[in-house]
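Troubleshooting log. The previous structure file for this entry was overwritten by mistake, so regenerating from the original sequence record. Sequence copied from the archived sheet and checked twice against the printout by T.R.
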Amino acid sequence: MASTTTKSSPWLSQAKDDIAQTTEWSELVSELFEAVQQQLTENHVSYFSDLKEPEKILFLDRAGKLVKSSLRHKNLVATVSEKLDQRLNESIMDELVNPSNEKTKTDLMLDSACDSCSALLHKWPDMRTKLFTCFNRPLTPKLRKLIWKMLLSNPGLRDKYLKEQWKPSKVQENAIVQKCHAFVASELLFVNLPKQQVDLLVHVMTKCLAYKQFYSKESLDDTDYLLMIPFLKVVVEDSFHGDSCHGNVEEISADVFEMFYTFLDYRPVYMKEAGSKEFNIALKHVGEIMASLVDSQDQQFAEFLEKLLSSHGNHLATFSVSLVNLMRSYLRSMFVGYLPLDVVCYIWDQHILSLKLQKLKCIPTFAVVLLLLLNDEIKDCKTTKDVESVLFEGSKSLKTRQLQNEIDQRFLPDWRNLINEEVQGFELPLVDPVATLGKTQPWTWWFQDRPATRQRPEDRRAAREAREMERKKIEKQRRNEEIQRQREEDARRRHEQEEIQLAFDQDKRTQADKIASLERDLLLEQQKRTTIEKQMGDEIEKLRYEIARIKGNQDVPVRSRSTLSSPLQPSLPSPAVSSGDSEVQDMLRDVLRMAFVGVNQLAHGVDAQEQHLQQIAKTSMNVSKTDYKEAEITLFGRELTKQDWDDMSAEQRQINRELLLKKLQESHMVES
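Regenerated output below.
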């Protein structure tokens, strides 16, 4: 950066004098003095001059915050805005009416404001943090060159470039010149430039790259040529007007080389040479960041992209690796050669502004934004080659406003938080693509006796890590509770199924025991009947024997037992006997008749009981079959055949059986 001191713009000094003479300024100064005096009284300090320099700054800073929400402060802000607008319009009026002027009023106002901003930043370098008000918006050419030069400053390297005597070989210089002509001709923004300007651009580009090769002792690759192009655009917009160049060519070359070489040093590891362990680790980390961002913004698109990239590549590669391989060329060149140069410069503005903010990750975020903007076209792709073609063709037609809107809607709130955490307590009214954010949140400790302590970056980082660990712990605990609840639910369901199965088995055993008991009773009755029949047969034989003996007929044939159960044959009329014999015969006949009647009743009575028992068993079996069929109709809508059960899988068959058992158990419980 040049060592010359930039003078403040006249209109800015005039506006300052006007503001100092207003009533609003006097009232605010009076209120500020009272606030400082209050701080001195509360801290038992007699005079402000008794304080040390850091204590004075602290008291003034606290007093300024105390009066910031007052009505006097609001009135002063309105007055400052009015005076600045008035003096700025007056300063550009003469140039605006000049016939040779080709700029609009807006351009003149922006140029004058940029000059004043440059003067203020040179006078108070600590106000660089206020440049975050330009975040997520493209910069004007003058302001862009100012910010790039300020944040990519390396005075020692610049002086060495200007003072050191060096000269590349003719062969190397010719090779660099040819490639520079090719790269400049490939950029659409430079196509319509006059030949004189193109030659100057090639000259500046050649000198910078040749010295870079000489200074670093390394050969040049295509990335070096690509990364030089945005710096040439800054030179074209700020230094070339018409066909002439305003400024010394050597000074311009020194400015470009200073910014270019410092920018190369600030590049992340994953944008540098491949092959090292650090490069692979950094590239993997960037892939994880991109995969996480895509998944958090559009999970459905992330799943589609993961499936597409894995189906036409290495199936073992993770989504993050596939994603970083897809976007690697865009990341390495920082989108130069793929996006329009205006869009590239807008992205570089955000990257250069956030060079000191390690966790902002601008470049991976813009790579994700590029995918999100083209997601509709990517969803129509079938292979990885199709995705690469869509990205290459679609990137050429993207506009700065599209990227601004995506950043504003998806990522700007998180970026605000990171900026506010890294910049220690500075109030930064960030600007979105539409309008400023407005008033910042009020301080909560304005009226405390002791000001709140400022946290160090290490403390904030430790606090963030602690919060992240606590969040992960809570998430893990929630997952464990969900798993435990699922296990308990499964155990309860298995226990209910086992109880149903046990109840069904118990009911089945009860029915079987009843049937077995009835069969045993039937067998006992049959045995008892056989015994009685045998006894009755013996008694009948004895009676017959006695009758025959009384009659004097000993040749009465002995009937077999098989004839006992048949009806008695009518006996032939016997010869007449005496009256005593007749009475004996009558008595024997009565006894014999009664015996046959008892045997007949016993036999027929046992048969009736057997039939009754068989009828009960048959009825029980019919009821069980009827309940089973009704359960099938209730559950499946029809009776299942043997073929239906054979067609089921083992798991489905087991589930259906459990359902039938449960239904039968419910039916039995209702009947009981």
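Residues 1-5, 425-454, 553-578 have pLDDT under 50 and may be disordered. Archived copy saved in two places this time.
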